[in-house]
Amino acid sequence: VVHRIGVIGGDGIGPEVVAEGLKVIAAAGVDLETVDYDLGGARYERDGTVLPDELL
Hints:
The chain is of the alpha+beta class. It has one domain. It is built from two helices and two strands, in the order E-H-E-H. The chain has helices at residues 14-27, 41-47; strands at 3-8, 32-37. Strands 1-2 form a two-stranded parallel ribbon. Helix 1 (14-27) links the parallel strand 1 (3-8) and strand 2 (32-37). It is flat, with a radius of gyration of 13 Å. It starts with a strand and ends in a 9-residue tail after the last helix. Pfam families: Iso_dh. Residues 5-54 form the Isopropylmalate dehydrogenase-like domain. This is Isopropylmalate dehydrogenase-like domain-containing protein.
């Protein structure tokens, strides 16, 4: 069974923590498909949106 999850790296140390967590899941042998989402403070500073309607 392939599990599909959304990944939101976030800001600050978030991207590093998420990347390491995904490595742990892969090492555990979980069949995982990820979908990355660009959400968080950096996005808001870049274009003024936090959660665009097209992602809902």
